[in-house]
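Researcher: Next entry: STEAP4 metalloreductase (Saimiri boliviensis boliviensis).
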Amino acid sequence: MEKTYIDALPLTMNSSEKQETVCIFGTGDFGRSLGLKMLQCGYFVVFGSRNPQMTNLLPNDAEVLSYSEAAKKSDIIIIAIHREHYDFLTELTEVLNGKILVDISNNLKINQYPESNAEYLAQLVPGAHVVKAFNTISAWALQSGALDASRQAILKKETPFSTSTAWLYDSYVALGILGFFLFVLLGITSLPSVSNAVNWREFRFVQSKLGYLTLILCTAHTLVYGGKKFLNPSNLKWYLPAAYVLGLIIPCIVLVIKFVLIMPCVDNTLTRIRQGWERNSKH
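Model: Predicted structure:
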């Protein structure tokens, strides 16, 4: 099987300084990505592999050797291998004696083993100096760099007392949750099996007062979501309001009419009419 190489363009390199050699055990995704970045930073990289002749997709300037041969060329060895395959390191105890072993592994589950991977590695190779590094960086972040995964967000300076946006977001979520809960409750009480089990006062309270409360919460939820967008012309595409604005027309009309009807001067007259009062009646 032929080797496939990837060209590595140096990021920073000083020709007057001697290149330091770094050994990487493992030619997987993370090992290849880390080796490429090491080469771009001016280091000489040698890979250790169990099958040096069958390794592919490695940087062009990297050397691929067996584990023992690669370990002899550097005092810093990065272990880019899963913990399940650490057993072969016991055969390299003499070669790894006094060298720095960088453990980058992570377990699939928390507390999967009684000791950490670095502690387990130190037990296998007691003569080496084990350190932990790179375990919070993914291979994708190393490959894409600042273009994607490791992009840093620009800090936007704001006054510490400017919390209007946070309050709007919290209110939007809270109103939505309460409105949805009451809406589900209204649906349940509308079932024949439930409505037949309550008296008319309870049914009237649920369908009338609780229904209007649900309508108010859901309308407020949408109003908070829109915020200042309702009066901002830049948000009007083709001079037409958004769908959530159109959806508020009927609920707002209903609430305005209901507010007028519950005013004492109107409510008292309507109550008398329901009870049989007529304008020209003497009774």
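Model: Note for the record: The CA atoms of residues 212 and 258 lie 9 Å apart.
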